[in-house]
Amino acid sequence: MSAAHRVAIDVGCGTxxxxxxxxxxxxxxxxxxxSAEQIQQANRAYQTTTRAEPHQADPKGEGQQKIAFIRSxxxxxxxxxxxxxxxxxxxxxxxxxxxxxxxxxxxxAGRDAVLALISYGVPALEPALDEPLSSFYWNDxxxxxxxxxxxxxxxxxxxxxxxxxxxxxxxxxxxxxxxxAFLGYLSTWSAVKNLHAQGHSVILRRxxxxxxxxxxxxxxxxxxxxxxxxxxxxx
Length: 235
Hints:
By secondary structure, the protein is of the alpha/beta class. Helices cover about 35% and strands about 25% of the residues. The chain has eight helices and eight strands; from the N terminus they run βαβαββαβααββαααβ. The chain has helices at about 15-20, 35-50, 100-110, 125-140, 150-155, 180-185, 190-195, 200-215, and strands spanning about 5-10, 30-35, 65-70, 85-90, 110-120, 165, 170-175, 220-235. Strands 1, 2, 3, 4, 5, 6, 7 and 8 form an eight-stranded mixed β-sheet that branches. α4 (about 125-140) packs antiparallel against α8 (about 200-215). The radius of gyration is 19 Å and the shape is globular.
């Protein structure tokens, strides 16, 4: 690949959903996350798809592994200076100490490197299902989201972003899920977890019953779509 596609760093990578997609375009891909559990899950997923052994990342981007995952905060990227062509943070930047993260991004960025902050809010469903989901998200759950969630709902447009911004096409994540998969996804939301912890599980049960009536057969696959919001800049 060209020098412009040598190293990509995905910060706050979670279990690596975005990280894996870079393997087609970059020589070396590094996923970073402060959670040991998330890194373990990402490594397990990588081993499953490649039958690779557990590995250590090469901070210089010169190792043999195509993708590597390291437990690391966004504010202390364990890489050499000037090696990265792309740095991303998907659904994570609202948790960062942004000045420190930006300083690290500038340090590891190579010539003409790009930084992309990516976020997505409430998914869009088919019209008959969209109304109850929207009400659940904007009304029932609002008191249970952490304050940082507002930054996601605003598409990161209010975040400080001191870089020359680059235009980009509109993009979205799309998938087909049955009802159990969709409800399982909702159970991962921090607001839903807070709702349970505070003894308000009846709110979720009421929503689940209502959405099931409209969904039809639980095994029926339906389109789920997350429009992406991005701040993209040249470092």
